[in-house]
Amino acid sequence: MYSVLLWLALILYFVGIVLTVPSVMKHRPSLPSSALAALGAGLVLHAASLAARAVQLHRLPVIDVQSALSFFAFLVTLAFFLVYLRYRINVLGIFMLPLVFVLTLFSALRPGPSFQSMAFRSGWLMVHISSIMLGYVGFFLTFVAAVMYLIQEGQLKSKNPQQTYYRLPSLELCDQLYFRSLKFGLPFLTVGILTGFVWAARTWHGHWELDPKILAALITWLIYLFLFSARLSGTWPGRLSAYVAIVGFAAIMVTFVGISFVSGWHGYIPRLGKAP
Amino acid sequence: MGINHRTAPVEVRERMSIPESRLREAISDLVHRDGIREGLILSTCNRVEVFASVQDHVPPEPLIRKFLADHHQCNLAEYEDHFYYHRQQDAIEHLFRVASSLDSMIVGEPQILGQLKQAYSAAREVGALNGTLNEISLQALAVARKVRRKTEIGASAVSVSYAAVELARKIFGDLTGKTILVVGAGKMSEIAARNLIRSGAGSILVANRTYDRAVELANAFHGKAIRFEQMLDHVEKADIVICSTAAPHYVIHRHHAEQWLAARKNRPMFFVDISVPRNIDPAVNELDNAFVYDIDDLGQVVEANKKQREREAVWAEEIIQQEVQRAMRRLASREIVPTIVALEQRLETIRENELERYRGRLSALTPQQREAVDALTHGILNKILHGPITELKSGVGRPEQSSLVSMVRKMFGVAE
Q1: How many contacts (CB atoms, under 8 Å) link A and B?
Q2: Catalytic annotation on B45?
Q3: Residues B298 and B230 in one domain
Q4: Are B101 and B197 in a shared domain?
């Protein structure tokens, strides 16, 4: 059931993206309502797919890489809608939606091995996972804002505006989006990491080691903490902040996907089921 | 029929122009001529155009030429090379393009729409628009608004002083509450400052060698004058600095800008240097969050904006083509509607006459049977009509339409 819904959502996302591209190319003042309708319907079906899986599993439907990506893609689409409705930045569709499509496709193609563990039903763990995901969505927006900022800044410095100059929002708006998404992401990542520690302490009573994923998450957290304080005090120029935000997102990608294959506890692989 | 900035030099356009004061009289003269049904005259500094709808089978060109020659009391043959003529679809397309500012000297300039509106209301006032041309004119105004709404043809600045405002918007987004520092109270900086204020910028500071002149300009903008010697201490408050002094050397150096940016906690600064020789060290542009544009840079942006408008014009042309097709279909379907009505009436008359002829022989029928006969004859008519009507409708807008119409009329004996 959830798989069918996911495929339908994927098709609607695809239609939405296809409808979005020409309006950005043609530099129309707003996205066509057909694109928004397709994306909105896709979002609803995606939510239904996640809900169906949640009912089936009796827990947050995040149990392996594929399902985690699906959940993340859902949150990114939701964020796209919220940000688009607030700021009306057309190009956001071009920056955000292809990722949604790729992630959803990946998770639809391979439903992944399913496993059950009593430990994974813990409330702490659900808070841990969803907080971290929300944090990542925030930082993805920070990343997008940083990229838009860098391109637009380059255009303004070059004094020879190209196509992108007309389509991208003002530096001020990029900066606003950058800071707001940072302020959104950081508390969630913090809560996510803390609840992770609490859950680990309660489950394993202190008998746990620092695995690569936890280490990577801590490094990511430090990067964003730096960014936040730098932006707050205004000590870093916009360009440097933007570059660091891109590095920060790369760190997230490493933490989220890369280390899943080497990490012990966070590997999303069935042998975890045999854990104490 | 018309002339414009591409086909005729200003002397000819002057000679042919019809001033606002004589416009109504001229239109009235035009439409009272034999053969002309409706008329619209658009006379601006870049074009003089006469639109007319004429009675069937009357060639319109000689009529309009005669009108212009009479109106200007001249021999039009002298100017013949400058005129262009469009008919039917081409004329509609031309009007739509003119209204949408695609035919303007500066593509996307907004005045033409207002001028067309004036021309339209003048023609309406004298009763010169009441049919097809009226409808096409109204559609032209609607098309122009649609083009404005759906493309950004008029969005980017094509003058240097507005280019500065636009760049400021690309940096600061909303200009509300932003502070402007004007260094050197010359005419150029005054214009630039006025544009920024109009676009919502907040407070203004003026520094000038002659303090009195600074005070004068500051008062004009409800701003604050500062002494030239203290100017450098105030710059950090300013988001936008407009510099235009007669100084033959740099007034603002890189190390100044470095200090200000640090004091501003890296909030961006936009420097507009409209003085020649330049007053702001171009090296300031190398600093993060500082953007320096001199007069040539602004010119370059204007050039890019013009290109951008041309790209937008391509999308606008698409919209116009769609609208022209729509107008043509509407006009064509208007041509077939009378034929369909006439056809239906013709067959209905035949049916009624025949029923009348057989009235005596049908008198024995019960009311139900009479109804059945009525329904039967109706049914036969509708079946017969179905073919030709479908054919007529499907021919709308195609080249064979008028021959189809006359063929159907002949076949069913419906008068033209």
Answers
A1: 73
A2: yes
A3: yes
A4: no
Asked if residue A168 and residue A102 are part of one domain, the reply reads no
Interface test with A, best of B288, B298, B312, B314 (most A CBs within 10 A): B288
**β-strand pairing of B269-273 with B180-183:** unpaired
pLDDT in tens, chain B (416 residues): 888 888 888 888 888 888 888 889 889 888 888 888 899 999 888 898 999 988 877 888 888 888 888 888 888 788 888 889 998 888 999 999 999 988 888 888 888 888 999 999 999 999 888 888 898 999 999 999 988 888 878 777 777 778 888 899 889 988 888 899 988 877 878 888 888 888 888 888 888 888 888 888 888 888 888 888 888 887 888 899 988 888 888 888 898 888 888 888 888 999 998 888 888 888 888 888 899 998 888 888 888 888 888 888 888 898 999 999 888 888 877 778 888 888 888 899 999 998 888 888 888 888 888 889 889 999 999 998 898 888 888 777 677 777 888 888 888 888 76
A230 in B contact zone (CB under 8 Å): no
Q: How far apart are CA B201 and CA B181, in angstroms?
A: 11
B256 and B170, same structural domain? yes
* Mutation site for B-interface testing, chosen from A23, A24, A26, A243 by largest number of B Cβ within 10 Å: A26
- B390 and B277 both lie in a single domain: no
Q: B278, B303, B328 — which closes off a domain?
A: B303
Residue at B205 is within a domain: yes
Gyration radius (Cα) of chain A, Å: 19
In-domain check, residue B34: yes
Instruction: Pull the structure tokens for residue A113.
Output: 């091995």
C-alpha to C-alpha distance for B38 and B35, rounded to whole angstroms: 10
Quote the domain boundaries for residue A51.
Answer: 1-114
- Structural domains counted in chain B: 3
Q: Which domain range does residue B124 map to?
A: 2-150
A266: CB partners within 8 A, 6+ apart: A211, A213, A214, A259, A260
* Contact yes or no for B300 and A160 at CB 8 A: yes
**Number of domains, chain A:** 2
Residues listed for chain A: 276
Same domain as A128, residue A110: no
> Taking the complete model, does pTM exceed 0.80, yes or no?
no
Give the pairing of strands B180-183 and B2-4. Answer: unpaired
Sign of CA dihedral B373, B379, B383, B389: positive
Are A125 and A244 in the same domain? yes
Candidates B45, B138, B276, B314; catalytic one: B45
Nearest to B266 among A166, A170, A238 (CB): A238
Do residues A145 and A249 both lie within one domain?
yes
